[in-house]
Write the structure tokens for this entry.
Amino acid sequence: MTNSVREKLKIIKDIYPDEKLKTRKERWRRMWRGEPPLDRYPFVFYPPLVDYYNTVYPKEERFNLFLDEFILRGNLEEDYIPAFFPGCRQGTIPGMFGAKEIVACGDYTCEKIIFNPEDINKLPEPSIKQGTPAYDMLEMERYFIEESDGQIPVHVCDMQGPLDAAAQLWGYDPLFLSAYDDDGKYDGIMDLVTRAFIMLWDAQKKICGDRFIATHMYGWTWVPDGLIGASLSADSMAMMSPDYFNEYYKPYIEKLGEYFGALTIHSCGNFSTLVKCLAEMPEIKAVNASQMTPQALYEAGWNPSKIIITKEDFDKAPAIFSFIREKKLRVEFCIRELWETGEKGLAKNPAAWTGETWDRIKARNLQVSQWANFSNRGM
């Protein structure tokens, strides 16, 4: 550990004292448990410095960026819990079968290695070998733990669910269609990828121990220990009918639920046709929708006793809080557009911010706190 890192860790401990973290965690705990808010609804702001999902930094750069972000956020009153997030590489699980990673325009995917159903029989058992994205993720998490002397928790990496990881290996069209065949190939690849998911998750949990945070939705939020068994991304849900989901994907989500316990599931796009299906599954504890608002999820049939994980722009936050209050929803709410931002919505040269800049940021912060106040019935 360098002197610079040691000094930053000391600053972080000073600006996030145990009592502050205890209060923030209690707000989240009450929301996740379905209990009345402590004083206000919990909320967190969009990250200022780290491009969590879209860029894979070298571990040293990512580590130091996170330390700077923790310190920058120390100026705010929100419910952020400092923690590292190793990132998102959609070829992580496919790489456990030997698929080569492809990087193009900042997008991380992989080469297909299945070209016909017979190729499924040639797939090796999943493994985590040096030089693969899965190995890199584990090494990054190990580095975070060691370099911070175990002082700061670490999130699980972005975990693509079984169907989406299998589609990376084969393609969505042939994978979807194979489910209708009676040759067992669909179940064969789904079983393999489900085992790979479990293997990678358990490897991360072993490395991080009691510093492990079992969510990557979002990589900057927090969930009380023991309330979520695992989280998975399933962008393919936007392409499915309820009948297809129930017959061909739901059994694998149930398998993960049986192994891990409660699950959080994510999808981009509009998956409103499946919201009721998810809401009825006892395994599903929370849903994260990148392009669906709490209002849209509620209208599509989401169960108010379960969690909605969402993010929305600052100017829409009052309406979201009003809706949460009116419908008695349980929402993990992230708010964007707090910072003086530049490209990709990240903070623009915070070192050059003046007192006037911080006054504007803190004024917006105060507004959000007022909107979130549990006793604020006049909204």
